[in-house]
């Protein structure tokens, strides 16, 4: 890391949602390398906390506060944010995809929280191999459909409603203090939507709008909000789901982390409402 980009989060108190996830395995160590004053990571699954701990040093762990908090409800979000000394930086990684053809998609699944790793019990499962995956997945389409046909995630609640709560309360603290950097993580699908991912892409497009609305509301302050749009990320889950694929072009979590950390730094003061594509080499 060059001198110019080292310690760019120095003395900042960082709220890092989703820091224990697949992308978090790259983002959390990178954030810590920039010497923040503290990093608060909410979680619901203790196993993911242990997985993250296994890639961090003892010194890293001293700067992290892990807090059990289900961010789909407002009071845990409010408590989490209020308990922080300050919220200088919000890096919001929480999200996840759902899959299914629009005309077969159950409305409850579209809008609601069904919990992670639900088995799809709609006809989309049976027909998923013939469904179209996003163009940028190219020849991975069949594997993508086969591997993911049996898994779905929450859509609007996980990617958008939850983000609203986290951004709302973080912004409140930032406005009190007069400083803030918000970085959200969307998806390439927000601007290049693919079939069978309608709920996910619509939710991520909503997250782009939410982030840009905040950027507009905070004009004239030292608070900024920007969003990155990754393509397929090289995470353990993607390696498992697409294990015969060449992952060399996938977005590396630590390179995406560098982009995120720059946007979260003082230096990015003139970037407001930017939608930053991070597509790797696919
Ligand atoms: N993976 C990709 O290829 C890819 C591509 C484009 C965009 N993205 C986006 O990148 C982001 C990170 O993806 P990922 O692959 O790292 O996902 P992931 O491995 O599934 O991790 C999700 C993270 O969100 C946390 N989380 C989920 N629900 C939560 C809740 N209700 N309350 C608190 N925390 C919660 C999880 O913590 P717990 O397990 O403790 O709940 C976990 O840390 C997402 O926004 C995703 O849409 C991913």
- Beta-strand content estimate: 5-15%
Main β-sheet: number of strands, strand sense, barrel status?
7 strands, parallel
The CATH level-2 architecture is identified as 3-Layer(aba) Sandwich
Listed once per kind, the bound small molecules are: NADP nicotinamide-adenine-dinucleotide phosphate
H and E string: EHEHHEHEHHHHEHEHHE
**Poorly predicted sequence stretches spanning 5 or more consecutive residues:** 113-133, 139-153
Q: How do you describe this structure in short?
A:
The protein is an alpha/beta fold and 282 residues long.
Describe the structure.
- It is a single chain.
- With 282 residues, this protein is of the alpha/beta class.
- The chain has one domain: 3-Layer(aba) Sandwich (Rossmann fold).
- The chain is 38% helix and 13% strand.
- It contains 11 helices and 7 strands.
- It has helices spanning 24-33, 46-53, 58-62, 74-82, 107-111, 124-127, 141-148, 156-177, 198-217, 236-241, 253-263; strands at residues 13-17, 38-43, 64-68, 89-92, 180-185, 223-230, 275-278.
- The protein has a 7-stranded parallel β-sheet, sandwiched between helices.
- Helix 1 crosses helix 11 (253-263), helix 4 runs parallel beside helix 8 (156-177) and helix 8 packs parallel to helix 9.
- The chain starts with 12 loop residues before the first strand and ends with a strand.
- Mean pLDDT is 87; it is low at 113-133 and 139-153.
- It binds NADP nicotinamide-adenine-dinucleotide phosphate (NAP).
């Amino acid at each position: 890391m060059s001198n110019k980009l080292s310690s760019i989060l120095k003395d900042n108190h960082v709220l890092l949602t989703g820091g224990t996830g697949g992308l978090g395995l790259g983002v959390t160590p990178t954030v810590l390398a920039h010497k923040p004053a503290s990093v608060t990571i909410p979680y619901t699954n203790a196993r993911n906390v242990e997985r993250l701990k296994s890639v961090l040093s003892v010194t890293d762990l001293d700067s992290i506060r892990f807090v059990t908090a289900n961010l789909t409800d407002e009071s845990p979000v409010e408590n989490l944010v209020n308990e922080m000394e300050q919220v200088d930086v919000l890096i919001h990684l929480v999200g996840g995809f759902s899959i299914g053809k629009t005309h077969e998609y159950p409305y409850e699944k579209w809008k609601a929280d069904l919990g992670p790793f639900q088995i799809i019990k709609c006809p989309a499962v049976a027909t998923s191999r013939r469904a179209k995956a996003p163009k940028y997945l190219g020849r991975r389409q069949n594997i993508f459909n086969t591997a993911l046909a049996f898994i779905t995630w929450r859509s609007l609640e996980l990617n958008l409603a939850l983000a609203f709560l986290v951004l709302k309360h973080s912004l409140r603290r930032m406005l009190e203090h007069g400083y803030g950097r918000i970085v959200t993580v969307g998806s390439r699908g927000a601007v290049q939507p693919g079939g069978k991912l309608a709920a996910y892409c619509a939710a991520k497009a909503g997250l782009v709008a939410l982030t840009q609305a905040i950027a507009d509301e905070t004009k004239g302050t030292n608070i900024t909000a920007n969003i990155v749009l990754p393509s397929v990320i090289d995470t353990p889950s993607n390696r498992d789901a697409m294990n015969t694929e060449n992952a060399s072009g996938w977005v590396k979590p630590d390179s995406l982390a560098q982009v995120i950390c720059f946007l979260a730094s003082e230096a990015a003061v003139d970037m407001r409402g930017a939608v930053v594509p991070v597509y790797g080499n696919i």
